[in-house]
Design brief:
The chain is built from seven helices and no strands. By secondary structure, it is mainly α. It has two domains: 51 residues; 132 residues, no CATH class. The mean pLDDT is 78.
Length: 191
């Protein structure tokens, strides 16, 4: 229990710092999202099971329904306007669905918190490297004024996302990665 509280505390600190960074960078909506997640983690750490909804949906035991949904959403977002109505409706809906599925997940039988942490640690390392890349390149761009001498990952991905079939594939991979994270977090290892 103490270890979970420590992890929640670090997570809240990271979310708070990220929110402050986004305020300084001039992205208040992003800041509100990060602060909101920090508050949600704080409430969850404080009240825990009392906040959990009793009828939280669970992931299917099989992977293929998620793959089908990921491909369909990938095609929808890949071939729709990049900043159009579909993107503005579907992307937040994905976030809400992910929170609903992930927040209330119970561990599979026999999975210890240490095993779950080890499974997720690979994803954490990748996420930290990408976040540090973004932060360092953002700071270098601000100091030097040379945006494309030190491109952030978002700058490198932008041209790829303009190609509709490639965008469909990247969105599908993004969603499949999210499904894998949800399944690893739960400790599921079935197909």
């Amino acid at each position: 229990m103490l270890r979970q509280t420590r992890v929640a505390s670090w997570s809240m600190l990271v979310l708070l710092l990220t929110g402050i960074f986004h305020l300084v960078r001039g992205a208040p909506l992003d800041a509100v999202l990060f602060f909101g997640m920090g508050v949600a983690l704080a409430l969850d750490a404080r009240f825990g099971a009392r906040l959990a909804a009793p009828d939280v949906p669970t992931l299917p035991s099989r992977t293929w329904p998620g793959v089908v949904v990921a491909v369909l959403i990938g095609l929808l977002l890949g071939f729709a306007s990049r900043r159009g109505l579909a993107a503005h409706l579907v992307i937040p809906a994905i976030g809400v669905a992910t929170l609903a599925l992930g927040w209330g997940q119970r561990d599979s039988a026999g999975v210890t918190p240490r095993q779950r942490l080890l499974r997720l640690s690979r994803w954490v390392v990748v996420a930290l490297v990408l976040c540090l890349w973004e932060l360092v390149n953002y700071l270098i761009q601000r100091v030097t004024g040379r945006d494309f001498a030190h491109p952030a990952m978002s700058d490198l991905m932008d041209p790829l996302l303009d190609v509709r079939p490639l965008r469909a594939g990247l969105v599908t991979l993004w969603l499949l990665g999210g499904i894998a994270l949800l399944r690893l977090g739960r400790g599921s290892h079935r197909d």
